[in-house]
Design a protein that fits this description.
The structure is a single chain. The protein is α+β, with helices and mostly antiparallel strands. It has 6 helices and 11 strands. The protein has helices at about 5-25, 45-60, 95-100, 170-180, 195-200, 215-225; strands at about 35, 40-45, 65-70, 85-90, 105-110, 115-120, 125-130, 135-140, 145-150, 160-165, 185-190. The strands form 3 sheets. Strands 3-4-5-6-7-8-9 form a 7-stranded mixed β-sheet, with helices on both faces. Strands 1-2 form a two-stranded antiparallel sheet. The longest helix has 22 residues, at about 5-25. It is globular, with a radius of gyration of 17 Å.
């Protein structure tokens, strides 16, 4: 089983930055857009980042399987200790295509269904969020220093909720939910950056009503939970 320590977290951060640089090389020039069977977009940046991360993880922890958004077919399940890597090589491809900088590289280590390590890198913004069980959660920027972060407490009575919303996934149920929340300020944002903003105390809540996938949330969940926040799944009817 992989040893969860600062050295492993640093190695995953470096790998995510390497994938991020490959993404930025495509971002700086013209690129083609394909569409997968589920109609989600795919670019050469997604493919390049996946190749770098898969190769790096296999070299780092050959005993741990990898589930990536760009390669679901080869994943046969967690290893005998319950571990696997969960990867979204380019989260926020729609934001990447729009060139608004709000896209990320997500890498999480899952143990028995729970994220125990997560790295989220936003290469265009030069930001990274790192979390691991037993180590805590950190943010890095151009200074390359790991700065501890902490989620905010819920707003006091009379204070507005700071709500994050998806830029690319509108849902009519959000309006109804917000109507029951009370006073709020709504800020749209792309990718797993929303969860990271909550983890560092810059927002209070991100309601999501549409479908999502494990690789969209694994690394971000680790970041939020290590920062003292919560991740809730609510089953509701339309």
């Amino acid at each position: 089983m992989p040893t969860i320590n600062k050295a492993l977290l640093k190695s995953i951060e470096q790998l995510a930055w390497e994938a991020g640089e490959a993404i930025m090389q495509v971002y700086r020039r013209d690129f083609a857009v394909e569409f997968k069977a589920d109609k989600s977009p795919l670019t050469e940046a997604d493919k390049a980042a996946h190749a770098i991360i898969a190769r790096g993880l296999q070299a780092l922890t050959p005993e741990v399987p990898i589930l990536s958004e760009e390669d679901t077919q080869s994943f046969k399940g967690a290893n005998t200790q319950g571990f696997y890597w969960l990867v979204d090589p380019l989260d926020g491809t729609k934001e990447f295509i729009k060139r608004n900088d709000e896209f990320t590289v997500n890498i999480a280590l899952i143990e028995k269904g729970k994220p125990v390590l997560g790295v989220v890198v936003a290469p265009a913004l030069k930001l990274a969020y790192l979390a691991a069980r037993g180590l805590g959660v950190f943010k890095t920027d151009d200074d390359v220093q790991w700065q501890p972060i902490r989620a905010a407490s819920p707003p006091l009575k009379g204070q507005p909720w700071r709500v994050l919303g998806s830029r690319s996934h509108a849902d009519s149920r959000l309006s109804s939910w917000l109507g029951e929340l009370g006073e709020y300020h709504l800020q749209p944002m792309g990718s797993s950056l929303k969860a990271c903003f909550i983890a560092e105390g810059n927002a209070d809540v991100y309601p999501r009503f549409g479908p999502t996938s494990l690789w969209d949330t694994g690394a971000a969940q680790a970041v939020v939970e290590q920062a003292g926040g919560g991740w809730l799944l609510l089953i509701t009817s339309r």
